Amino acid sequence: MTPEFAPEQLKKTKAWEYLVRFAFGGAITAATGLIAKLWGPFVAGFFLAFPAILPASITLVKQHDGRGKAIEDARGATLGSIGLAAFAIVVVITSGRLPAAIVLTLAAVAWTIIDVGLWFIRFGRARGHA
Amino acid sequence: MEFLVRFLLGGAVVSAFAAAGELFKPKTFSGLFGAAPSVAIAALALGFQKHGSGYVAIEARSMALGSIAMLLYSAACVALAKRKAIPVWLGAGAAWIAWFGAAAALFFIVQGIDR
Question: Strand B24-25 vs strand A4-5: parallel, antiparallel, or unpaired?
């Protein structure tokens, strides 16, 4: 099995569903700033790995495609969490040694490689659509 | 003003990752985007600009620990979504307890080690 590009899926999502994600994502990002002011960057850093997209995402997948697909979506996020850790570790290692844009780009590349690699290891051998 | 910028930037990045996830199938692959570093990219970019690399490194260090909490959150979502008696939205909300519990435990463990 390989991932497929399926832009037609975007049509399933209504405008208000994007607005909910925008508002929630914006609120979490603003909240991390407030938390950093109140308790410092170490506490705020935890909230950079707060599940901001997933709750809305699996709820909407359940509505559009059923409970089974929502479970699959959450399974993907479980693997994605390891990529999220890779992103953070790359920032820890390279921050202060490289320019900010390069640090974030390298971290995003690490996230992509780890996520896609783990996905192929875990689901790539399965037949049909996982 | 700073919070407005954070809100707009964070909202835009989170929406972009959410939309990117919907461009792919199967769901196990698009689900990878559910744990995308969307809030992190916005917050760390602003952190670099305002506070510098040392501050960002501290945030990223605890973010790595938060990723463990995120993994437990996602696993809890899978377990709760399998129970048909529990609505998916309720399970996803209740699983936040797993995230807060794990994050708090890791915080206190690291604080204890650093002393």
Answer: antiparallel
B30 touches chain A (CB under 8 A): yes
Which among B13, B48, B74 is the top mutation candidate for probing chain A, defined by the most A β-carbons within 10 Å of its own β-carbon? B74
Contact B97/A at CB under 8 A: no
Using omega within 30 degrees of 0 as the cis cutoff, is the peptide bond preceding B26 cis?
yes
For B38-72, give one letter per residue: b (16+ CB within 10 A) or e: bbbbbbbbbbbeeeebebbbbbbbbbbbbbbbbbb
Of the candidates A119, A102, A53, A109, the one whose C-alpha atom is nearest the C-alpha of residue A86 is A109
The tens digit of pLDDT for each residue in A33-59 reads 999 999 999 999 999 999 988 888 899
More confident residue, A13 or A72: A72
Query: Which residues on chain A are in Cβ contact (under 8 Å) with B66?
Result: 45-50, 88
User: What is the 3-state secondary structure of A45-96?
Assistant: HHHHHCCCCHHHHHHHHHHHHCHHHHHHHHHHHHHHHHHHHHHHHHHHHHEC
Distance from CA of A52 to the nearest CA of B (A): 8
Q: Which two tokens stand for residue A14?
A: 């209504």
For this complex, say whether ipTM is above 0.90.
yes
Which is nearest to A44 in space by CA: B91, B107, B31? B107
Q: Find, in chain B, the residue whose alpha carbon is nearest to that of A25.
A: B11
Cα B39 to Cα B93: distance, rounded to the nearest angstrom: 18
